[in-house]
Amino acid sequence: MTPITEVEGRRVALSNLDKVLYPATGFTKGEVLHYYATTAEVLLPHLRDRPVSFLRYPDGPEGQVFFTKNVPPGTPDWVTTAEVPRSEGPARMVLVQDLASLMWAANLVTEFHTPQWVIGAPGLADRLVFDLDPGAPATVVECCEVAVWLRERLAADGIEAYVKTSGAKGLHVLAGLTPVSSERAVEYAKALAVAAEADLPHLVVHRMTRSLRAGKVFVDWSQNAARKTTAAPYTLRARAAECVSAPVTWAEVSTCRDPDQLTFMARELEVRLLEYGDLLEPLLDAGRAGTLP
Question: Which keywords are on file for this protein (predicted)?
């Protein structure tokens, strides 16, 4: 029998709590759910009002991994959903608005991915993102050098940047924006990626061709497109171990000399949150948003 628990007055089924999802560390589904419950206070504001795409891995990262954008079958009627415009026609997607919805979604075993816009203004970007993806033998250490360049370049345009680990190999550099069309956000982000390659030709590539990436950092500007999504802050990733997409300080970025310095596991986040709080909280403050030149 599937256990039923009550979360904020909602009945939520939580299944297979002893199932090991991350064999490398023995991290179980119950621990996944505990992680999301204990980080909900900082995670939920970054999910709220953004249609969520799920990268699901119900049997762990070594099992079947699949992407879900539409409302999954069996979604409770109390979970908020909304119609989202798409070029191929509108779709209905989930909005994770509260703790009960978060725990229901976490029970599906998922990464949380969101667009750079909110449901009330689809296609109007209120966030800017650069996904820094290292091509071996480059690592997150090289990503840090590129991130610092982007921070300085954004600051020159009056835009304050923040940074988090991707939870995989690289970094995400983010900034809050006074809402602007996704097309304009893409145009601006691509121009900065091109400029980064011009300034750091030994280190940066802005083109998506994989054969160009060896030993360099691909500055992916395309995730600013309205149809694209990025791993949300604090989401677990479908990796060998329970790595988290964790906000980090610029001091940690500028002093990084070893990839392990910027690898954070679920068990470490509670201590980091006590020390730093939500380092991405300024992204939630419209008054601190930057304006594209």
Answer: Ligase
Q: What proportions of the chain, in percent to the nearest 5, are helix, strand and coil? A: 35, 25, 40
* Contact (CB, 8 A) for 105 and 192: no
- pLDDT per position as a tens digit, 147-159: 999 999 999 999 9
Angle, helices 182-199/140-156, rounded to nearest 10 degrees: 120
Q: Which residues contact 257 (CB under 8 A, 6 or more apart)?
A: 141
Measured distance CA(161)–CA(194) in Å, rounded: 18
pTM of the model: 0.95
Share of the chain above pLDDT 90, in %: 92
CA distance 239 to 243: 7
Q: Does residue 213 contact residue 136 with C-beta atoms inside 8 Å?
A: no
What gap in Å lies between CA 238 and CA 120, rounded to an integer?
30
**What stretches of 94-181 show up as alpha helix (H) in DSSP?**
99-107, 140-156
In angstroms, how far is the first alpha carbon of the chain from the final one? 58
